[in-house]
């Protein structure tokens, strides 16, 4: 194999050497009293301009510098390596890493990058040029963002944030979580914070991700630590700590098992990324957030986002938004859990009345409940006759399942819930009964 | 993105005027200096902000003059640059495209002195009223204080 390919590979290497030989140009520029030596290399910066370095003889050997062009270029893109501000910290740290590794320095007076060498060494010159090229790519990093998150995680988090922000218009949704360990604030990027009031975090959605089981298990440890310390570090009750799982589906069951071991059986609510409805239900169950939400709008957002997610994941045809109203099942599922538990009685009653209003706002449920309520008790046959609808049995069954009607010995009666709901609706909008 | 290219193309062509010198930002050192002049447009251009930046170095041939601009709430980026090209031994104007790549726009030939260079760039980028720009280097006599009127 080598005997056939060998000459070709050698010729490629030779052409590379020849190209470098021809493209590395030395210029002697005389200006005023001094002489300036410049070397143009064939290695280009991010903006496609070839790097030029200047050579200056000094007492200890040679000084290489870039003539300030790199600092000027970065400065024009609002990246200031000379600044000590927090805004430029990440860029400065990147430069300091390079400087420590390769013996580079930044002259503050001359505003230029410098490197001194005792004797002529081609490797040092190449390193200096490579450092300039690497620094020029900070412009690209600035535009794309400097973050340890993968592109997929970034997209998922942005998606979650937008969904929550749209569903909860009265709530401030911020990127990242800021746990405060022993009074020292730390920025944790893997998550979203929810603020019902200013400067007071109400709840958080932690993002659990990983390609392999190694990464997932390491992240589970972080989740467990945050959950155990959420009262002290995040100042939120454990019920308001939600974890969204975005890792591979085969590790989901293992993740649940590992999380079971934390806090003597108490564990954070683990919701998969795809299950937006469950996530929003969990978020809406936080008592501080419930007051600030519009359930109908929230449901529409769930539908739209789940529709969008399904469409984008399947990479199908262009998106066509459906203007469908939320279905009865959606409304009911949202409040059923809360209704059963009745955690907060006042808000539960208010929300239940809202759910009934939505439920009864749609025909034919409204007509049937009105008919039954007005008469007190009716048989199925009478309801069918009065309402003029031949097929009312499935609808009546649904109303019975929702505890709005009770059936005893073939006679249907309105439950106290239906009366309460209709009463609250009448108090809000008497015109409802005139339709 | 194509609209963006048009915006920045037009930005160079639109006549610009330097705002008052009091708002000039100078970062002065012994050898290198960066001087920024905020530019004003003669007619209102919505959402655009531009600056003329002089990156001045002790050796005259290392100086660079650039035009940077930004759309509202974005960071500044280079739109055009005048720099000395050692390959051709002459001053060259570069233009940046929407992807921040640079290409040679015009060869300006040889120029004697920084003052002549700034005057040329003022005409090239339609910058009017670039006055009272004074830079003095005590260490290097070759770059004297000058004013552009």
What does this protein structure show overall?
The complex is a heterodimer of chains A (435) and B (149). With 435 residues, chain A is an alpha+beta fold. Chain A contains 18 helices and 16 strands. In chain A, a hairpin with a 2-residue loop joins strand 3 and strand 4. In chain A, helix 3 packs antiparallel against helix 4. About 6% of the residues of chain A have low confidence. Chain B has two helices and nine strands, in the order H-E-E-E-E-E-E-E-E-H-E. In chain B, strands 1, 2, 3, 4, 5, 6, 7, 8 and 9 form a nine-stranded mixed sheet that branches. Chain B is globular and about 40 Å long.
Distance between the termini of chain A: 88 Å
User: Which chain pair has the greatest contact?
Assistant: A-B, 37 and 33 residues
Biggest sheet features of chain A? 6 strands, antiparallel
Largest sheet of chain B: 9 strands, mixed
Sketch the topology of chain B as an H/E string, one letter per element: HEEEEEEEEHE
Number of strands of chain B: 9
The number of helical elements of chain B comes to 2
Strand content of chain A: 15-25%
Q: Describe the global form of chain B.
A: globular
Helix fraction of chain A, binned, reads 40-55%
Question: Low-confidence parts of chain B, pLDDT < 50 over ≥5 residues?
Answer: 136-149
In one word, what is the shape of chain A? elongated
Number of helices, where a helix is a run of at least 4 consecutive DSSP H or I residues of chain A: 18
Tell me the β content of chain B.
35-45%
Order of strands, main sheet of chain A, comes to 1-2-3-4-6-5
Helix/strand/pairing category of chain B: alpha+beta
Task: Work out the oligomeric state of the chains in this entry.
Answer: heterodimer
Low-confidence stretches of chain A: 311-326, 337-346
Gyration radius from CA atoms of chain B, angstroms = 15 Å
